[in-house]
Design a protein that fits this description.
Blueprint: H1 8-39, E1 59-65, H2 72-80, E2 89-96, H3 102-109, E3 112-116, H4 124-138, E4 143-146, E5 151-153, H5 157-166, E6 171-178, H6 185-207, E7 219-222, H7 223-228, H8 238-248, E8 253-263, H9 269-284, H10 286-294, H11 303-314, H12 318-338, H13 344-370, H14 373-379, H15 383-394
Parallel strand pairs: 1-2, 1-4, 2-3, 6-8
Antiparallel strand pairs: 4-7, 5-8, 6-7
Helix pairs in contact: 1-6, 1-12, 1-13, 2-3, 6-13, 8-10, 10-11, 12-13, 12-15
């Protein structure tokens, strides 16, 4: 029996071809998806409303808080100043497993305070379950709103929620951005990233009639929707999870661009790393649980919303996409050197260039809408280092879902 001779050139060719394919397919898919949303990211038309649109609607603003005594008074004061009749909204601070004066400070500021003490079941998701259950049981409000305990909301927050709810929306999300973008180059990069993720993509989905999902801060849900889709998300990405469950029920989360909630990013390096790690781990746990059911062919009436939410879960973080495209460029170039005359590496290098251009347009659009100006554009030069830092975080050991307050820089 004759044994085929080992041909190094053939094996090298197949190895390079397989490597380029494995890098090109997900890169091109993700880049094309982001490009499509970028192209539709014009400002959505603001709803033309009559002076009394939704005037009778009442709101419960739920603020989940864990050891936030230093800033909770400012949060409550900001919410009390919203442009909505004072007798038609309440501020409910859920002081979850607090070891400081969060509850007392919130009461003194004028909020209704709910205190939770359960060391085994702790986290933002459990705090929201408590807040939603009380809101439903007391029958004061028609709509529940979620604002984080480190945030400032624009004065029109409840007014735009009232307009959308009166027009038939069951859930809505406003722009969630950075409160202090000019504090440092890292804050400006985060501002651009938030603008790309929360504004560019959400605008695209809104203009296409899709669901923008829930971004954790600055969102509302009607009591009717809460009864229909019970809030029971306790993971590290409880906001995204509930948005997926709403989509499965055929409820579109509408995006509102003309209002905003801005979060403080005054955190030290360890705090930022811990927070980012929890976000990345929480999101990475969702595709296995939701992608198959979201991409199911029926029911047809909610197919577009569900399919978009499912595809969004499959799109990796921008840092991972950038790394995949960079590796594709490197492997394709190696193929040009190792396989002279072959058109395959040239084709894959062209794919890498197209993906790079799409990602570049997405990031540029995020910068354009971020308001960071020329300083933000200069800071983008350090984006690869920021992306590498994020990728290193993904390699760290997993964490549990316990609510660990992010350490902030003392002001």
């Amino acid at each position: 029996m004759t044994v085929a001779a080992f041909d190094p050139s053939t094996w090298l060719q197949w190895t390079l071809w397989l490597s380029m394919t494995l890098l090109a397919v997900p890169s091109l898919f993700a880049a094309s998806y982001l490009l499509g949303l970028t192209l539709f990211s014009r400002a959505p038309e603001e709803m033309a409303s009559a002076p009394n649109t939704g005037a009778k609607l009442r709101f419960d603003i739920i603020v989940p808080a864990h050891d936030e005594e230093a800033g909770i008074t400012g949060v409550v004061d900001n919410l009390l100043a919203l442009d909505w009749p004072r007798d038609q909204f309440r501020i409910i601070v859920v002081a979850d497993n607090c070891s400081d004066g969060t509850a007392e400070y919130a009461r003194q500021a004028g909020a209704l305070v709910l205190e939770r003490h359960n060391p085994e079941l702790r986290g933002k998701g459990y705090a929201l379950v408590r807040g939603f259950s009380v809101s439903l049981a007391q029958h004061f409000a028609d709509v529940a709103v979620v604002v984080d305990a480190d945030s400032r909301a624009s004065r029109n927050l409840l007014r735009v929620f009232a307009e959308r709810t009166a027009a038939g929306a069951m859930a809505a999300q406003v722009f969630h951005g950075v409160l202090n973008p000019d504090s440092s180059p890292r804050h400006r990069l985060m501002t651009i990233a938030y603008s790309a993720f929360h504004r560019v993509r959400s605008r695209g989905r809104e203009n296409l009639g899709l669901s923008c999902g829930i971004r954790g801060n600055g969102w509302c849900v009607s009591h009717d929707a809460l009864r229909r889709v019970t809030y029971a998300a306790h993971g590290l990405a409880e906001d995204i999870e509930y948005g997926l469950r709403l989509g499965l029920a055929g409820i579109r989360v509408e995006y509102i661009d003309e209002a905003q909630v801005l979060s403080s990013m005054d955190t030290d390096a360890n705090g930022v790393a811990s927070q980012r790690n929890r976000w990345e781990q929480g999101r990475s746990s969702l595709p296995q649980a939701f992608t198959r059911v979201l991409l199911a062919p029926s029911p047809a009436t909610t197919r577009a919303i569900r399919w978009d939410l499912g595809l969004d879960l499959l799109v990796p973080p921008l840092a991972s996409i950038g790394l995949a495209v960079a590796l594709l460029c490197a492997v394709s170039y190696a193929g040009l050197l190792a396989l002279p005359g072959s058109l395959v590496p040239i084709a894959f290098l062209f794919v890498a260039m197209l993906a790079s251009a799409a990602i570049g347009l997405h990031v540029t659009r995020g910068w354009q809408l971020s308001g960071t100006g020329s300083r933000g554009l200069l800071d983008l030069a350090s984006a690869p280092r920021f992306a590498l830092w994020k990728l290193m975080l993904r390699c760290r050991p997993g964490q549990n879902a316990a609510w660990v307050r992010t350490r902030r820089i003392a002001s």
